[in-house]
Structure formats: C-alpha cells, structure tokens
Give the backbone structure.
Amino acid sequence: MDNKTILITGASSGFGEATARLLSESGHKLILVARRKDKLEQLSKELNSEVHIHQSDVTSRAEVEKLFKSLPEIFKSIDVLINNAGLASGLDLAQDADLDDWDKMIDTNNKGLVYCTHFALKTMKERNDGLIINIGSVAGSVPYPKGNVYGATKAFVRQFSRNLRADLAGTDIKVSNIEPGAAETEFS
C-alpha cells in the first residue's frame, strides 16, 4: 500500500494505538482521534510519521463534523478510515442492566461509527477512492450472557458494513469489517 492518509478513531489505546504504531512504521500520515488528548500527544511523539491528533468524542455529531472540517490541508484527503472507537459498558444481565450503560454503548459503537463514516465518505466520494475498516467483534455473531447490548451493537457494525458495500458497489470505495475476539487491552 502506498503511503496513505489514515484516520483512526479510538487511537489512544488498545487496537487503535497498536494500529497507529504499525501503520507509522510504513510511513503513512496518521490522524489520531480519541477523547484522551494526553494519550494522543504521547503516542504522536513516539511515532515515525506525520501525525495530526484531534481530541474528539465520536458520540457527538457536532464534534465529528468539527473534526473533519478542521483538518489541516495535508490531512484532508482521507484514504482510509479505521472506525475503532468502541466500548463495552456495564455488562450485566439484561434484567439488571443500567440503561445509561446501554446508551453509552449504542452511542459509541454505532452512532460514532456512523458519524465518522458519513463525513469520511464525502471526501472519498469526490475521489471515488477509499477504504473504510470497521472494527466489529465476534460478539456480533456469538451471543453470551451479559453481552446483550454490546453484542447487538457489534451485529449492527457487521450489517452496516454489508449495506455500505452494497451502496458502494461499482465504486472504488471499499468497506471491511474486522471481528476480533477478546484481547488483553484497557478495553478488556
């Protein structure tokens, strides 16, 4: 893959941080997005490529729009979007769950992904080129106790990815959905 401009959400830890480190080794320009600016600043100092950091909460449509509008000129043409921001909150049996935890998972895992995809597609459509990588989970296919809403949000990611591919058929914009299992990160 030639050097690309790659936007990674949830880049301050876990899969997002590891992906940024890996892609930096290949010289890609990186836009790192997360809520924790201090973590992004530290990570950017450790990488060997051009990096733009942006503190943003992807659950806020206005913040995501601001992110895309405020990108420096050399980062505006996004080649790859990696929708990595996500969380599992609460993880109680459905009958004991806190509705705020469910809202938080839906807002982050689904709305955040949808907002970022929408704004990235605008520039990809202009060039008829791009790649969207959505980070789902095996939990979207395999139910387990206490995984009620988390699993449902990841099933949404899978189906949204499929429908994006259907909408983008005939273009040079590609969509992928990666579904990892449990991994040792801050997340789990």
Summary: The beta strands are 5-9, 29-34, 51-55, 80-83, 130-135, 173-178. The CA atoms of residues 93 and 146 lie 5 Å apart. The first strand starts at residue 5 and ends at 9. The chain has a mean pLDDT of 94.
